[in-house]
Structures are given as C-alpha cells and as structure tokens.
Amino acid sequence: MSETAYVRTRIDESSGADMIDGPSSAPFSAPSSASSPGLAPQPSRRLLLLLTILASILAFAVCLNLRLMEAPAWNSEWFQVQGEPLMSTHDAYYFLAGAQGTGRPHPDHEGFFRLTRFFQAVTGMSLNQLGFWLPVFLAPLVVFPLAFLAWREGAPEAVLPMGILAGGSMGFLIRTRLGYYDHDMLSLLLPVLIAVGLLVFLDRGLPSRSDPESERPEPGMAGLIAGCLGLGLLGWGYLRFYASGLPILAGIVGMGLVLTLVLGRDMRQRVLLGSVLGAVYVLAVNLPFGLVILGLMGLVFGPLSRHFEKRGPLGIAVVGIVALVLIGAEIHLLFFEVMRQLGKYAPLLGEGNQTAADLAWPSVMQSVREARLLSPFFMAERSGGTWWIFAAGVVGYVYLCWHRPLYLIFLPLMALALGSVKLGARFTMYGGVPAGLGLGIGLALLLRNLGLRQRVGALVLSAFGLVAAALIWAQAEGLSPQPVMSRAYAETLQELRDVAAKNARVWLWWDYGYATQYYARRASFGDGALNSRNYLFPLALVHSTDSPMQAAQMIKLVTSSQMEHWRGAGSPGSDDGEIPWRLYLQQPLVDWRDIPADEAQAIVDDLAEVRRAWPDDLPEQLFLLSWGNLNLAHWITTFGNWDLRTGQGQGGRMQRVSADVQFDLETGFIVPAQGEPIPLDGFLHVEGKLSREQQWGNDSGRFAVYNDSLKQLLLMDRTLYKSMLVQMLLADPEEFAEHFELVVDRFPWTRVYRVR
C-alpha cells in the first residue's frame, strides 16, 4: 500500500482496550469483558449495558425531580394569567413571541422559533405550557451522552455521580428550571454531544497511549467522511440553535486538533485527521463550503489517492485543502464573536462607551445579575454543588486526562466555568460536566488502578453521587417561583391587544420588551438585546425626567428620526406583518453620531423647555409604568440622568422601611420607635384606588410613599420621587394630560399612557 493511502481494515470487535490500558475502550464497540490481572472478571457486555441504562435513568430522574420540586408552588393564582403560568426568565417570552410570529425578527434565532413550533405541533401544548414545562425535561438529557462514555469504559458505576453533577449542578439547575425556556435547556447538551462524538471519532484513529507503536486498526476513508459529516451537521445544528456557541464549538474542535497533533502516529495521520477536524468546523459554520471541502478530501485521499503518491503533488493538495479550510472557517467571525462576548460579559469597558463623536452612552451590563463578577468559592459551589465536591471533581478530571488524554476535549467547558469569576454566573453551568467526568470516570479509573473490585468502586461512587444529590437537593429546596412579572403586569399587556393600534409601539423598561411582544403582540422600544447605549439612554430618560414634556418629546424625537431613516432607505410600502419591524428596527438617534457631545446634551435639555413641531403621521406610541419597576429605580434613574459629555449618571436613591414608625402629618416627620424623627418634604399615601399627597417645606430632600395593599413604606430622594416613573404611576393622570392620555389604569400596579 502506498504511503499516502489511508489504511482500510476491519475493526476487530473484541479489540476494545481495557480501562487500564488505552485512552479508552474501542469506539463504537462494547467495552471489553476481559478481566485485568488481580481483579475479578468484569460483567458481561449485556449486563454492563443494562447497568448503564438503569444508572442513567436514575441520574436523569434525580436531575428531573430537582427541577420539579417547586412545581406545586406554581399552582398559586398569583403566578398564572388566564390559567397559564408566567415565565421565569425574560428570554422565554422572546422565543415564544418568535414562534407566535409577533417577536422581533432575527435570523440567528429563526431556528429556535421553528423548533418551538415543532415542539408545539408534536406535544399539542399551548406556547405558555410548552415554555413552562419543556426545559425541565430537556436539560437532564445531558446525562445520556456522558453515560455512553461510562459504558465505553466499562464503568456503569460512574454514571450516577457524573450525571447528577453534570445535570444537577446549581449553575445549570437554576438556568433550566420551570419557565426557563431559552437556549440553556439545550446549550449544554449539544456541545457535550459534539465533544463525545469527537472523542469517539479521534479514539478510532489515534494510537493507544500505553502502546503507541501498536498497529491499531484505522478507519477507512468512508468512515472518516461519515464521522466528519455527522459531527459537522451536529455542530451546524448547534450554531443554528445557539449562534453564540461559536467560541465553545471552536474550543472543542481546537482541543481535538491539539490532541491530534500531539498524539498522532505520524505526519500523515496528523495531516489527515487535522484536515478532517477543520472540515468539521467549516461544516458547522459554513455548510455548503464545508460539503465542498469534504468532497475534495474524499477524492484526494480516496479514489484519486494514487495520483498523489509522491510528496510533491500530495503536499500541494494538502496545502490547498488547508487553505480552503481556513477560508471556509471564517476565523474573523470567530474573533469578532469572542470580542463581542468579552465586551458583553467581561468588565473590559466602563459604564460609558465613547464613540467617534465623543458621545458617552451608558452601558447596561453592570446592572445585569448574570454578568456580575463571582468569587472562586461561589463559582465552585455553582459548578459542583459544594466547593469540595467540585474540587474532588477537578482532581479526578486531571487524573482522568493524564490516563485518557482525549478527555481534554472537555477542557473548554472547564475553562468557561473557571472563567465565570470574570465572565459572570451563567458560565458556571458548564463546570458540572468536566467535574462530573472526574468524579465519575476519573474516580472509577483511580479505584481500579488501586486494585479495588468494581463492586467496591460502585459503592464508593454511588455514595459520592447520593451525597452530591442530597447537597444539591438541600440547596434546591430554597428555590421558589420567581416569575419575571406580576399577574397584573401580564394582564395589562394582554389588554393592550384591544387598546393599541396594530402598528403601535410600547415604551416600557427593556426587561419587559419580550413579554410585550408576546402578550400585547406589539413592538417594544428596547428588549433583552436592544438595551444599551442609544436604546438605553432615551428609554431611561423618559422614566427618569421630572418633565412630562421632555418625556413625550424624547419619544417623538426617536420615532420621527427612525421614520425619516426608514423612508430614506427606500419606499417603505406595507410591512410583511402587522408589526412594522422594519421601521422600529432603525437605529435610534443615529444622527447623533456626527454631532459633538455638548450639542447632543443641549438637544436633550431643550426637550424639557422648548415645544417642538412633530410630523402628524407618527405611529402610536404608548408608555407603560409599573410598581415593580421601583425595584430597578436606582439603575433606571442612573441611566436616565446620564450626561453624554462625561459618561456619568446620578441615580435616585430609595430605601424600604421595615421598622415600626408613626407619621406626624402636621409637621411632616416620620417618628420611628427608636431613633430620631426623620423630616419629609412630601408623603404620598396609596390607599386602594386612590392616592393622597401632602407636602411640607422641610427642605430635607426626602419623600415617602406608603402602599396600603403591600403595607410597604418607601423612602426616596427628590430625583426618584419627582420622576415620571413615580409620578405618572401614582399621581393624578390629569397632571400629564397635556402630553399623555391614560388608556389603561390598573392603579397602583400599572398604568399605560398614549403619547398625544
């Protein structure tokens, strides 16, 4: 056989390496039943398979029940609207709205929208019920590909601790609970499937670590092409479902390439397998181009291999394929995606982002919980249940990789978990997989190498699994339903279906933009993706200003500028749907890119003092305020009082008073049971459907709001009390009638105004 021809040979089904000898047992074959010296005979293949299936079902059941613990509490009427549950994450409403056809369109998410419609067609469930229940059943599926690895190693005892840690770690659990219908329910399973497939694929071709010179049978070209195509299509599906997973996919494939270069038998094998891995990546990011490369590889290393027996022609062919791989891989897109996510999650930028025109827009990321920095201790708890279980898993993973280097393919997932101390809490969800591999297969390997019987190892590993489950269970018991909005808020949005024009847009805090697109079936200004810089500033300003004219005119300024650019882009015609997304997705305040910061700030200030003329054909704009937004009042007023010249904002302050107090309404003092009396400048008493306000000239800068229904007393400063966020929600609507018309009144929980 020529030097360049790839060896074709039948794989001996009984050639599976024992767990002590090779990098893993023979791929796609049952684990070896041969006993190691000094150990009891291993169970039969059929028994190993049965034990693996039973253990994986048990691990799946544990992970499922961890997520169902809070289900009874969701039966409360306060967590449902029209008999259907509220969602637990804002993003869930985006994907449900997209499947419904009323969400903001985005090509990267169209695959998820179609998948949601498919799930609905198969299950017959409503979108609400689907979004509520499906995550808790899909997320624990990550147990099964890991169980397959345990079966290949002949170690079914590893499944329970490995599956519980991977599928039940708190970092993953809290992101895949009831009502968490978003990418996370599958964004761990899919890269794990890719990593498992890549490990098995490379294990067929790379030599055994314990016997590098052994003539291990290599797969034929057809097997390589089939494996490459399967992995590439899996990666393509992963990126269609979760476009932000590109760096994760690149890390896994890149780790496979490193292992190929280090463990490859010779240069020919390294070049061939490296080219195949490159083709896998290209298939994932650019499917048509990847199919072309795969076809060329099949020809060069297959039927046309006799024409490339000499080194010269072969080298030219290989260089050509590598060049095509580099072109098709679109590395620049990977670079931009990595930088985008670093800029999004890592604190590389301050709150104000400077532009070429020296406008210092505000950035929202430091107010987002999942992007906040973590301590290493908290990271370990989220990734492994407790810090010591995670530490044991890491040690076991290191031991596993020392004896089975191909398990380094999972190293990018460990890197994400460790990097969560800088990137934010959401990345802890990846740490349970490598830690679980260490606590499962790694510990099983260690116990066998110490000479312990497999039954003893099974008892030890089961104990670890049960302890991990008990500790995670104890933490999960503290979880309670946390819908992202109140029932009154959702009912208000539903009411807008009948109140608002089809082309209307709702201005409300961006957290609730997706819910607006789902419940109201109307466009929102801002949402979970359009929430920073030139979206964040005007949205926060209309909430924070003490001038209703400035709020109304900022809304009109943004809408008129968007309409001008929409028309300038060509004949607008009629929109494809009822929501004019092509209009509303024009960049707001885009003209400010070319003006100095002083001029932009002057325009903002003038909106509160000078009445401007606006086009008569602006689409209807609505402004929604809610009691729940008071929880976000500090951030809203910080961004709303932002200075575009300095990149600084001064937010309002608010304090909840839980101590027993009395009011002296004659002098305007709060008299606590202990301590000095506190002077007030104003007091707003919310009682049923009415509110009563009193003011005093104490010049204290303090105001109080008392909600009879909640028995809640709020102390706030002048900035917050005088803002539209408080006044338009709680004060007499007639005070704003010159600029706003009240159209929905669910005082004191929500109000919706139409801009006049």
Number of helices: 28
Which topology of the domain at 487-632 does CATH recognise?
Pyruvate Kinase, Chain: A, domain 1
Mean pLDDT equals 85
Coarse structural class: alpha+beta
Strand content: 5-15%
What is the global morphology?
Answer: globular
CATH class of the domain at 487-632: Alpha Beta
Q: How are strands sequenced across the largest beta sheet?
A: 6-5-7-19-18
Assembly state here?
single chain
CA-CA gap between termini: 84 Å
Walk me through what this model shows.
The protein is built from 28 helices and 19 strands. Strand 14 and strand 15 (690-695) form a beta hairpin. It is globular. A five-stranded mixed sheet has the order 6-5-7-19-18. Helix 1 (45-68) packs antiparallel against helix 5, helix 6 (159-168) packs antiparallel against helix 18 (432-449) and helix 9 packs antiparallel against helix 12.
Please give the structural blueprint.
Elements: H1 45-68, E1 80-81, E2 84-85, H2 90-100, H3 110-123, H4 127-138, H5 143-152, H6 159-168, H7 170-173, H8 189-205, H9 221-241, H10 246-263, H11 267-285, H12 287-300, H13 311-329, H14 331-345, E3 352-354, E4 360-362, H15 376-384, H16 387-403, H17 411-423, H18 432-449, H19 454-476, H20 487-499, E5 505-507, H21 513-520, E6 523-524, H22 536-544, H23 548-568, H24 581-584, H25 597-606, E7 621-626, H26 633-640, E8 642-643, E9 648-649, E10 654-657, E11 661-664, E12 669-672, E13 678-679, E14 682-687, E15 690-695, E16 702-707, E17 712-717, H27 718-721, H28 724-730, E18 740-746, E19 750-755
Parallel strand pairs: 5-6, 5-7, 14-16
Antiparallel strand pairs: 1-2, 3-4, 7-19, 8-9, 10-17, 11-12, 12-13, 14-15, 16-17, 18-19
Helix pairs in contact: 1-5, 1-6, 2-3, 2-21, 5-6, 6-18, 6-19, 8-9, 8-10, 9-11, 9-12, 10-11, 11-12, 11-13, 12-13, 15-16, 15-17, 16-18, 17-18, 18-19, 20-21, 22-23, 22-26
